[in-house]
Automatic annotation (TrEMBL):
Primary site of residence: cytoplasm
Family statement drawn from the similarity comment of this UniProt entry: Belongs to the PNP synthase family.
Biological or metabolic pathway of the protein: Cofactor biosynthesis; pyridoxine 5'-phosphate biosynthesis; pyridoxine 5'-phosphate from D-erythrose 4-phosphate: step 5/5
Name of the gene encoding the protein in the UniProt record: pdxJ
UniProt lineage: Bacteria, Pseudomonadati, Pseudomonadota, Alphaproteobacteria, Rhodospirillales
EC number: 2.6.99.2
InterPro entries per the UniProt record, alphabetical: Aldolase_TIM (IPR013785), PyrdxlP_synth_PdxJ (IPR004569), Pyridoxine-5'_phos_synth (IPR036130)
GO molecular function terms noted in the UniProt entry: pyridoxine 5'-phosphate synthase activity
Compartments reported by the entry: Cytoplasm
Protein name: Pyridoxine 5'-phosphate synthase
Amino acid sequence: MNYLRLGVNIDHVATIRNARGGGHPDPVRGARLAAEAGADGITAHLREDRRHISDGDIERLTGEIDLPLNFEMAATDEMLAIALKHRPHAACIVPEKREEVTTEGGLDAAGLHNHLTRFCSELKGAGIRVSLFIEADKRQIDAAVSLGAPVVELHTGAYCDAETPAERSAHLERIREAARYGAERGLEMHAGHGLSFDTVGQIAEMPEFHELNIGHFLVGEAIFGGLDSAIRRMRALMDKARADASGRIGA
Ligand SMILES: CC(=O)[C@@H](O)[C@H](O)COP(=O)(O)O
Ligand SMILES: NCC(=O)COP(=O)(O)O
């Protein structure tokens, strides 16, 4: 079974900083600590309204942190110019609505196909690994393939927020099918949004996934036990889920 990378999303450190202005807590310090705790990458979403991560944070993350940066961005010319300037390891195109509390659903890669073509090709041309943050939906996966994106990240928010076990297993099944469908079409499969200690295992055990991006829960847990311990525990749960699943496959 392939290694499952953990990308730590440090947006939520910046959310706390911005509640008061000033520089504390510093998301770049969070990224440094995440690296020490075993994160394989850092994710940061520069929202158009700059509600958490700032332009200066992106500049410092690319200059001061050795881990690969996954730059989450809306498909706008402003964000494209910033990505091309900083050349992060990866750029994940996400849908954005100013008024939303969080990223409420996946990118409509099928509906926005013509609009996205130029963004995918300019990012790829600059050597940036393009990822599309989409719902677990075959139509969206087909669109990602046709746009030439090498990576998709499946939105796990609905699975994490499910209110009943039946609802949760229905979402899980959709994610499982989409992960297989995408991997069969040559896409590198990632997942993320809303994952917690309770929900990560069933996603981590799917062998198609290469990377999970997790932030909000980790920063929340950090209040009680520290960021280092939250990341190490998440990492251990991911590894256990993988080991248990490969034991089942081998048995
Ligand atoms: C796209 C995504 O899911 C992440 O960027 C993360 O959720 C960021 O947090 P906010 O949605 O609170 O901006
Ligand atoms: N793309 C999803 C992500 O980076 C992390 O989402 P969350 O764990 O902060 O909800």
